[in-house]
Automatic annotation (TrEMBL):
It comes from Oryza rufipogon. This is Exostosin GT47 domain-containing protein. It is a single-pass type II membrane protein. Pfam families: Exostosin_GT47. Residues 32-381 form the Exostosin GT47 domain. Residues 1-19 form the signal peptide.
Length: 463
């Protein structure tokens, strides 16, 4: 009669083999499934050549304020992060926002899951420095009425050179970065006769209106209200850590900072000609110097000098974020890094913009919202509103803001594996979001329901 222990041993061996097979299957799971990116090789005129004549081709520095600006070509060092503010700096740079396209390109090039064959790619990244390419159209009066041509040369190249790459999914699997507000690149494309009769709006082009590029996903610093074509990603700050200890050291400094000032406004201080929220803030700060700190950033004083505004932010509990020419501000992300609780005055300033990086449902955890109408026309005093927020609640909001900080910073290229594996930064989340959006579009095409492509459904998570 067979020994029962023998059967138990066989069962144990079989179970172990099954478990090992399961583990092997998990190990064999493709880590790049749905994440393969092909970086399209573009002629240098679409990227590298735009940087060759930085001293004359585009003014990255304001020559009228040499004390507060970096020389234009100097802004290109460190793959677009700019020069360090001083020799001892290790994580801070004088970063020009307009060079986002350059250092984003550098970061995508060092990602895993890159493929040389576009037919194997889930997404195609176009390293086109669109914002830099627009500067001649918006700065040269002779080209102002030709700005509808911005991007037309790229469209022609994509249609002519290996057209099957673009045609495979009609461009829905392509994405690129645009260092600016989508509003500045969405002027209607008009016929020549109309253009001759009516001058174009200064400072804008029609890049986002070109039919040939209409299916591409644009990652912009500010999106419009119908985000099927573009999605907003954070404004670059000057903080670009390369290692986890440097990130943690900065966050620890922000946590332990003494904050004697109730609130701070950092921005231009010119008084508007008509009532608006910025004017109301300046008027209140002028009357409440005991509670409000103003950092004058007029004339580009802050763009290339992070110490000028980061130190005051570290000493303030709340940082006011009124809209300017457009709703969003770089100062919002500086404040989050400093642990200075952002105070918003309209939803378009952030909550409706950066869903991939700052979950909309969590804004009440790390920010304060005061409707601008109640301040400008309703007599609400900002300082009085903020003063009643308990110290414990302020600490909790500050902690939540600092928890969000790694999500909105752009870490330095070539950073340590420890940092990149511990926390996803603005580039990681932007690429992940673009891949999710592309997967949704491709599924809609495969299902024969192209109308789903243009829906406004939330793409912060997979459906």
């Amino acid at each position: 009669m067979p020994n029962p222990l023998f059967f138990l041993l066989l069962l144990a061996v079989a179970a172990a083999a099954t478990a090992a097979a399961g583990e092997g299957g998990a190990t064999r799971k493709d880590p790049c499934a749905g994440r393969r990116i092909h970086i399209r090789r573009l002629p240098p005129r679409f990227n590298a050549h735009l940087l060759r004549h930085c001293d004359a081709g585009f003014p990255l520095a304001d020559p009228s304020t040499p004390a507060t600006s970096s020389p234009p070509c100097e802004s290109l060092v460190n793959h677009g992060l700019g020069p360090r503010p001083h020799s001892s700096s290790r994580s801070w740079y004088r970063t020009d926002t307009r060079l986002l396209e350059v250092f984003f390109h550098r970061r995508v090039a060092e990602r895993g899951c890159l493929v040389a064959d576009p037919a194997l790619a889930d997404a195609v990244y176009l390293p086109y420095y669109a914002g830099l390419d627009s500067l001649p159209y918006v700065l040269d009066p002779a080209l102002l009425d030709s700005s509808a041509q911005h991007g037309a040369e790229l469209a022609e190249f994509l249609a002519r050179d290996r057209p099957q790459i673009l045609a495979r999914r009609h461009g829905h699997d392509h994405f690129l970065v645009l260092a600016g507000s989508a509003w500045d690149y969405s002027q209607p494309v008009r016929a020549a006769a109309a253009a001759a009769a009516e001058a174009r709006l200064w400072g804008t082009t029609s890049l986002l209106r070109l039919p040939a590029l209409g299916n591409l996903t644009f990652l912009t610093l500010e999106s419009r209200a119908w985000p099927w074509q573009e999605h907003a990603i954070p404004h670059p700050t000057s903080f670009h850590p390369a290692s986890l200890p440097r990130l943690r050291a900065w966050l620890a400094r922000a946590r332990r900072a003494r904050r004697p000032a109730l609130m701070l406004f950092s921005g231009g201080v010119s008084r508007p000609s008509r009532p608006n929220i910025r004017g109301s803030i300046l008027a209140e700060c002028a009357n409440r110097t005991d509670a409000c700190v103003v950092v004058d950033c007029s004339g580009g004083r802050c763009s290339h000098d992070p110490i000028r505004y980061m130190r005051p932010m570290l000493h303030s509990r709340f940082c006011l974020q009124p809209p300017g020419d457009t709703p969003t501000r770089r100062s919002t992300f500086d404040a989050i890094l400093a642990g200075c609780v952002p105070v918003f005055f309209e939803d378009a300033a952030a909550r409706r913009q950066y869903g991939w990086h700052l979950p909309p449902e969590r804004y009440d955890e790390f920010s304060v919202y005061i409707p601008k109408e109640s301040v400008v026309f309703g007599g609400v005093k900002i300082a009085e509103t903020l003063a009643v927020v308990g110290e414990g609640e302020v600490r909790r909001m500050r902690e939540r803001a600092l928890e969000m900080a790694p999500r909105v910073l752009y870490r330095r290229h070539g950073s340590t594996a420890e940092l990149s594996e511990t926390a996803k930064d603005a580039v990681d989340l932007a690429v992940d979001g673009a891949l999710r959006r592309i997967r949704r579009r491709v599924r809609a095409l495969d299902d024969g329901e192209p109308e789903r492509i243009y829906s406004l459904e939330d793409d912060a998570v997979e459906s």
